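Much of our argument rests on the idea that a fold can be written as discrete symbols. The record that follows shows the chain in one-letter code together with its fold in token form.
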Amino acid sequence: MAFNVAQTQATTEKLNTGVTTMSAKLDLIGPAVEKAMNHWYIPDAIAKPVIWAANKLIELGSWILDKVVECLKGVAAPVMFFLDAQDWQGSSIRGKASGVAGNVAGEALKAPLSWTGEGATAYTGAVKGQPTAATQIETTSDKLATALTVCAVAGAAFYLALLAVLIKAIVVMVAAAAAAATGVGAPVGFAAAVGEALSDAGIITGLVVTLVGVLTAQATQMAVIKGEANDSSAFPGGKWPSATV
């Protein structure tokens, strides 16, 4: 799955709209059930189970809504990860490191072509470590960009799947309210709705677990990259190699 900024932003907008719609639909269920069951010809044997199922559905729907709202706190992250990945892979970081690596490589040095002697030899030796350091930055940039892109794609897929669950949950709430309004169809309608809501809750939990797994793997990769940044062979003493002797 390729990352698409516009699609991810559109998903965010739909999620925010969906949260508002879901909340409104949940508010309709209680009054609809109360109105439908509050008749002399509705026996307690029917009314009580329907009211219980309605309350259970509202509880599950509220849980789903709360989880979606909680997940939306990080909704900006995928786009930020993607843009950061572009920076690391672009001309401002990797491009400059690549330029340094090429310009200070032994075969690219201009001075030794017309300069000989101890000074020239010392100069050539002094800059030997710089191509290695620049190449290490290139490698680190690639790894960071890859890790950030993986996080961005995983995040975008997560929110897209979350949107699908939210839309399904809204449909369930609308159907439940409609079933309550009929009175006769309420028992069957609410039984099905509770089952669907339980399924949606399970799907959300599974989505979160999957996303956490992906992000944990990338966090491990970040730890490896940090270790490489502290590699003394490329950065003696944790610093850029000195060009003086």
